[in-house]
Amino acid sequence: MREAVVSSSQAPRPPAHIAIIMDGNGRWAKARGLPRVAGHQRGAEAARIAVRTCRELGVKFLTLYAFSSENWKRPASEVDDLMALLRYYLRREVSDLTEQDVRLRFIGSRERLAPDIISEIEHAEARTQHNSGLTLVVALNYGSHEEIVQAARSLAQDVANGVLKPSDIDENTFAERLSTSDIPDPDLLIRTSGEQRLSNFLLWQAAYSELVFLDTYWPDFSRENLETAIAEFHRRDRRFGTTNG
Ligand code: FPP
User: Fold this and answer.
1) What pTM did the predictor assign?
2) Residue 50, exposed/middle/buried by CB under 10 A (0-12, 13-18, 19+)?
3) CA pseudo-torsion sign 208, 213, 218, 223
Protein backbone atom coordinates (compact mmCIF):
# COMPACT_ATOMS: atom_id res chain seq x y z
CA MET A 1 0.00 0.00 0.00
CA ARG A 2 1.35 3.40 -0.93
CA GLU A 3 1.07 6.24 1.52
CA ALA A 4 1.14 9.94 0.82
CA VAL A 5 4.67 11.12 1.48
CA VAL A 6 3.65 14.63 2.49
CA SER A 7 0.44 15.22 4.41
CA SER A 8 -1.37 18.53 4.22
CA SER A 9 -0.30 19.27 7.82
CA GLN A 10 3.27 19.38 6.48
CA ALA A 11 2.45 22.02 3.89
CA PRO A 12 5.22 24.64 3.97
CA ARG A 13 4.48 27.80 5.86
CA PRO A 14 3.57 30.76 3.67
CA PRO A 15 6.05 33.62 3.39
CA ALA A 16 5.64 35.91 6.42
CA HIS A 17 5.67 39.08 4.31
CA ILE A 18 4.46 39.46 0.73
CA ALA A 19 4.84 42.77 -1.11
CA ILE A 20 2.98 43.45 -4.34
CA ILE A 21 3.41 45.96 -7.16
CA MET A 22 -0.14 46.02 -8.50
CA ASP A 23 0.52 46.82 -12.15
CA GLY A 24 -1.59 46.69 -15.31
CA ASN A 25 -4.82 48.45 -14.37
CA GLY A 26 -4.57 50.82 -17.34
CA ARG A 27 -3.78 48.08 -19.86
CA TRP A 28 -6.60 45.91 -18.49
CA ALA A 29 -9.05 48.78 -19.07
CA LYS A 30 -7.64 49.66 -22.49
CA ALA A 31 -7.96 46.06 -23.68
CA ARG A 32 -11.68 46.31 -22.90
CA GLY A 33 -12.23 49.78 -24.33
CA LEU A 34 -12.89 51.11 -20.82
CA PRO A 35 -11.57 54.26 -19.12
CA ARG A 36 -8.47 53.78 -16.96
CA VAL A 37 -10.52 54.42 -13.81
CA ALA A 38 -12.44 51.20 -14.50
CA GLY A 39 -9.12 49.34 -14.27
CA HIS A 40 -8.33 51.00 -10.95
CA GLN A 41 -11.80 50.14 -9.64
CA ARG A 42 -11.35 46.48 -10.53
CA GLY A 43 -7.81 46.74 -9.18
CA ALA A 44 -9.14 47.81 -5.81
CA GLU A 45 -11.40 44.73 -5.77
CA ALA A 46 -8.37 42.56 -6.60
CA ALA A 47 -6.60 44.14 -3.61
CA ARG A 48 -9.49 43.02 -1.37
CA ILE A 49 -9.08 39.48 -2.70
CA ALA A 50 -5.33 39.59 -2.00
CA VAL A 51 -5.93 40.74 1.58
CA ARG A 52 -8.53 38.05 2.24
CA THR A 53 -6.38 35.31 0.72
CA CYS A 54 -3.26 36.35 2.65
CA ARG A 55 -5.29 36.38 5.85
CA GLU A 56 -6.64 32.90 5.15
CA LEU A 57 -3.22 31.51 4.23
CA GLY A 58 -1.61 32.86 7.42
CA VAL A 59 0.61 35.51 5.81
CA LYS A 60 1.49 38.03 8.54
CA PHE A 61 2.35 41.13 6.45
CA LEU A 62 1.07 42.23 3.04
CA THR A 63 2.43 45.44 1.51
CA LEU A 64 0.58 46.92 -1.47
CA TYR A 65 2.03 49.66 -3.67
CA ALA A 66 -1.08 51.80 -4.09
CA PHE A 67 0.39 55.11 -5.22
CA SER A 68 4.01 56.00 -5.85
CA SER A 69 5.54 59.41 -5.34
CA GLU A 70 5.97 59.47 -9.13
CA ASN A 71 2.25 58.83 -9.75
CA TRP A 72 1.54 62.56 -9.18
CA LYS A 73 2.89 63.05 -12.71
CA ARG A 74 -0.20 61.33 -14.15
CA PRO A 75 -3.04 63.48 -15.50
CA ALA A 76 -4.81 65.31 -12.67
CA SER A 77 -8.07 63.53 -13.49
CA GLU A 78 -6.47 60.11 -12.96
CA VAL A 79 -4.84 61.23 -9.68
CA ASP A 80 -8.26 62.49 -8.57
CA ASP A 81 -9.85 59.15 -9.50
CA LEU A 82 -7.24 57.22 -7.50
CA MET A 83 -7.68 59.50 -4.48
CA ALA A 84 -11.47 59.20 -4.72
CA LEU A 85 -11.12 55.43 -4.76
CA LEU A 86 -8.82 55.53 -1.76
CA ARG A 87 -11.28 57.75 0.11
CA TYR A 88 -14.13 55.36 -0.70
CA TYR A 89 -12.24 52.27 0.45
CA LEU A 90 -10.87 53.89 3.58
CA ARG A 91 -14.42 54.74 4.66
CA ARG A 92 -15.91 51.43 3.61
CA GLU A 93 -13.26 48.86 4.47
CA VAL A 94 -12.17 49.55 8.02
CA SER A 95 -15.02 47.61 9.66
CA ASP A 96 -14.47 44.66 7.37
CA LEU A 97 -10.72 44.71 8.02
CA THR A 98 -11.36 44.77 11.75
CA GLU A 99 -13.66 41.77 11.41
CA GLN A 100 -10.84 39.95 9.62
CA ASP A 101 -8.41 40.98 12.41
CA VAL A 102 -6.37 43.01 9.92
CA ARG A 103 -4.22 45.92 11.06
CA LEU A 104 -3.86 48.76 8.57
CA ARG A 105 -0.64 50.76 8.25
CA PHE A 106 0.46 53.37 5.74
CA ILE A 107 3.99 54.12 4.59
CA GLY A 108 5.01 57.03 2.39
CA SER A 109 4.87 60.77 2.70
CA ARG A 110 1.67 62.46 3.88
CA GLU A 111 2.72 65.69 2.16
CA ARG A 112 0.41 66.53 -0.77
CA LEU A 113 -2.35 64.24 0.54
CA ALA A 114 -5.71 65.93 1.11
CA PRO A 115 -6.41 66.71 4.80
CA ASP A 116 -9.53 64.51 4.85
CA ILE A 117 -7.52 61.55 3.51
CA ILE A 118 -4.88 62.08 6.18
CA SER A 119 -7.54 62.01 8.90
CA GLU A 120 -9.15 58.88 7.41
CA ILE A 121 -5.70 57.24 7.43
CA GLU A 122 -5.08 58.23 11.04
CA HIS A 123 -8.52 56.98 12.04
CA ALA A 124 -8.03 53.65 10.21
CA GLU A 125 -4.58 53.09 11.74
CA ALA A 126 -5.84 53.90 15.23
CA ARG A 127 -8.98 51.80 14.91
CA THR A 128 -7.12 48.70 13.70
CA GLN A 129 -3.95 49.04 15.79
CA HIS A 130 -4.74 46.10 18.09
CA ASN A 131 -5.58 43.68 15.26
CA SER A 132 -2.95 41.01 14.87
CA GLY A 133 -4.04 38.51 12.20
CA LEU A 134 -2.45 40.29 9.23
CA THR A 135 -0.81 43.69 8.91
CA LEU A 136 -1.80 45.35 5.65
CA VAL A 137 0.79 47.98 4.76
CA VAL A 138 -0.38 50.42 2.11
CA ALA A 139 2.44 52.24 0.36
CA LEU A 140 0.87 55.57 -0.54
CA ASN A 141 2.79 58.51 -1.96
CA TYR A 142 5.77 56.23 -1.38
CA GLY A 143 9.18 56.19 -3.04
CA SER A 144 12.26 54.35 -1.82
CA HIS A 145 14.78 57.01 -2.82
CA GLU A 146 12.94 59.62 -0.79
CA GLU A 147 12.62 57.22 2.17
CA ILE A 148 16.36 56.44 2.09
CA VAL A 149 17.29 60.14 1.77
CA GLN A 150 15.03 60.90 4.74
CA ALA A 151 16.79 58.23 6.83
CA ALA A 152 20.23 59.60 5.85
CA ARG A 153 19.13 63.14 6.71
CA SER A 154 17.82 62.09 10.11
CA LEU A 155 21.10 60.27 10.95
CA ALA A 156 23.14 63.25 9.71
CA GLN A 157 21.09 65.55 11.93
CA ASP A 158 21.84 63.36 14.97
CA VAL A 159 25.55 63.40 14.12
CA ALA A 160 25.46 67.20 13.72
CA ASN A 161 23.75 67.45 17.12
CA GLY A 162 26.42 65.25 18.69
CA VAL A 163 23.90 62.54 19.65
CA LEU A 164 25.42 59.95 17.29
CA LYS A 165 28.93 59.19 16.01
CA PRO A 166 29.39 58.30 12.31
CA SER A 167 30.89 54.99 13.47
CA ASP A 168 27.59 54.19 15.27
CA ILE A 169 25.80 54.01 11.91
CA ASP A 170 25.38 50.47 10.64
CA GLU A 171 22.71 48.53 8.72
CA ASN A 172 20.52 48.22 11.81
CA THR A 173 20.65 51.90 12.81
CA PHE A 174 19.93 52.81 9.18
CA ALA A 175 16.97 50.42 8.89
CA GLU A 176 15.55 51.85 12.12
CA ARG A 177 15.14 55.22 10.37
CA LEU A 178 13.08 53.80 7.51
CA SER A 179 9.27 53.87 7.56
CA THR A 180 9.34 50.08 7.81
CA SER A 181 11.49 49.99 10.97
CA ASP A 182 9.08 47.66 12.80
CA ILE A 183 8.05 45.61 9.75
CA PRO A 184 10.09 42.57 8.64
CA ASP A 185 11.59 42.69 5.15
CA PRO A 186 9.43 41.09 2.42
CA ASP A 187 10.19 37.44 1.71
CA LEU A 188 8.35 37.50 -1.59
CA LEU A 189 7.82 40.46 -3.92
CA ILE A 190 5.29 40.05 -6.72
CA ARG A 191 4.78 42.33 -9.72
CA THR A 192 1.88 41.76 -12.08
CA SER A 193 1.40 42.74 -15.75
CA GLY A 194 4.63 41.25 -17.12
CA GLU A 195 6.83 44.24 -16.28
CA GLN A 196 10.04 43.31 -14.48
CA ARG A 197 11.08 46.37 -12.48
CA LEU A 198 11.05 47.49 -8.85
CA SER A 199 9.95 51.06 -9.70
CA ASN A 200 11.38 52.65 -6.56
CA PHE A 201 9.51 50.20 -4.27
CA LEU A 202 11.15 48.88 -1.06
CA LEU A 203 14.65 49.06 -2.57
CA TRP A 204 16.40 48.63 0.78
CA GLN A 205 13.91 46.14 2.20
CA ALA A 206 13.78 43.86 -0.87
CA ALA A 207 17.54 43.19 -0.89
CA TYR A 208 16.96 39.46 -0.28
CA SER A 209 13.34 39.09 -1.41
CA GLU A 210 12.41 36.46 -3.96
CA LEU A 211 11.00 38.29 -6.99
CA VAL A 212 8.09 36.76 -8.89
CA PHE A 213 6.74 38.42 -12.04
CA LEU A 214 3.29 37.41 -13.24
CA ASP A 215 1.85 38.13 -16.68
CA THR A 216 -1.64 38.73 -15.29
CA TYR A 217 -2.92 42.31 -15.24
CA TRP A 218 -3.64 43.35 -11.66
CA PRO A 219 -7.48 43.60 -12.00
CA ASP A 220 -7.50 39.88 -12.93
CA PHE A 221 -5.35 38.89 -9.95
CA SER A 222 -6.89 35.93 -8.14
CA ARG A 223 -6.31 33.55 -5.26
CA GLU A 224 -4.79 31.12 -7.79
CA ASN A 225 -2.23 33.76 -8.89
CA LEU A 226 -1.19 34.28 -5.29
CA GLU A 227 -0.90 30.54 -4.70
CA THR A 228 1.19 30.21 -7.89
CA ALA A 229 3.58 32.92 -6.68
CA ILE A 230 3.84 31.29 -3.24
CA ALA A 231 4.52 27.89 -4.83
CA GLU A 232 7.30 29.49 -6.90
CA PHE A 233 8.69 31.04 -3.71
CA HIS A 234 8.80 27.62 -2.05
CA ARG A 235 10.48 26.02 -5.06
CA ARG A 236 13.25 28.61 -4.85
CA ASP A 237 13.48 28.18 -1.11
CA ARG A 238 14.02 24.43 -1.52
CA ARG A 239 16.68 24.98 -4.17
CA PHE A 240 18.72 27.50 -2.22
CA GLY A 241 17.85 26.78 1.43
CA THR A 242 20.46 25.13 3.59
CA THR A 243 18.53 24.04 6.68
CA ASN A 244 16.25 21.31 5.28
CA GLY A 245 18.73 19.55 3.04
C1 FPP B 1 -0.80 50.38 -11.76
O2 FPP B 1 -1.57 50.25 -12.92
C3 FPP B 1 -1.59 50.67 -10.62
C4 FPP B 1 -1.61 51.85 -9.94
C5 FPP B 1 -0.85 53.05 -10.32
C6 FPP B 1 -2.39 52.06 -8.76
C7 FPP B 1 -2.78 50.82 -8.02
C8 FPP B 1 -4.09 51.11 -7.50
C9 FPP B 1 -5.06 50.22 -7.26
C10 FPP B 1 -4.92 48.77 -7.37
C11 FPP B 1 -6.39 50.70 -6.88
C12 FPP B 1 -6.46 50.93 -5.45
C13 FPP B 1 -5.66 52.11 -5.14
C14 FPP B 1 -6.01 53.07 -4.37
C15 FPP B 1 -5.14 54.29 -4.29
C16 FPP B 1 -7.27 52.97 -3.61
P17 FPP B 1 -1.27 51.25 -14.11
O18 FPP B 1 -2.30 52.30 -14.08
O19 FPP B 1 0.14 51.72 -14.03
O20 FPP B 1 -1.47 50.28 -15.32
P21 FPP B 1 -0.75 50.35 -16.72
O22 FPP B 1 0.73 50.15 -16.45
O23 FPP B 1 -1.35 49.20 -17.45
O24 FPP B 1 -1.08 51.66 -17.33
Assistant:
1) 0.93
2) buried
3) negative
The SS3 of residue 20 is strand
19 lines ligand 1 (CB under 6 A): no
Atom of ligand 1 minimally distant from the CA of 83: 15
Residue 108 Cβ inside 6 Å of ligand 1? The answer reads no
* pLDDT: which is higher, 209 or 239: 209
Q: Is 199 exposed, middle or buried (0-12, 13-18, 19+ CB in 10 A)?
A: middle
| Strand arrangement, sheet containing 188-191 | 102-107, 134-142, 61-68, 17-21, 188-191, 210-213
* Dihedral sign (CA 127, 131, 137, 138): negative
Q: For the chain, list the domains and their CATH numbers.
A: 17-143+185-235 (3.40.1180.10)
- Please choose from 23, 200, 214 the residue to mutate so as to test ligand 1's pocket, defined by most ligand atoms within 8 A of CB: 23
Q: What is the pLDDT of residue 12?
A: 84
User: Active-site positions?
Assistant: 23, 71
DSSP state of 189: E
**pLDDT at residue number 150:** 97
- Is the CB of 27 within 6 Å of ligand 1? yes
Q: Which helix (H) or strand (E) holds 152?
A: helix 144-160
Ligand 1 contacts CB of residue 40 (under 6 A): yes
